[in-house]
Give the backbone structure.
Amino acid sequence: MGQDLLQKNIERTSVTKGSSDCERGSGDNRPISRITGFHLDEEGHWVAELSCGHTQHLRHQPPWQSRPWVLDPQQRQQHMGMPFDCGWCAQGVDSDTLGR
């Protein structure tokens, strides 16, 4: 769970194998996924499950991360199906390394 500066990045545990379900955003051609679900990690932080197969922590830790909606079940439900910029897809993460 770090970075080997001489070789390549080691993926974080929240990343799962990606799929080709990322859409392309209009104009800038960035990949866009959709939120398909949520789960709690082992430390009690909310994780969004994305249509591309990746996951993304959505922490509410003011003042650095302000996402009070993740703490409310109804507001999380309202975000289901919403577009989400997947940082892993944008980086072109090599999904062959994710199964290690």
Summary: The two ends are 12 Å apart (CA to CA). The CA atoms of residues 37 and 77 lie 8 Å apart. DSSP finds two helices and five strands in the chain. The longest strand covers residues 31-40.
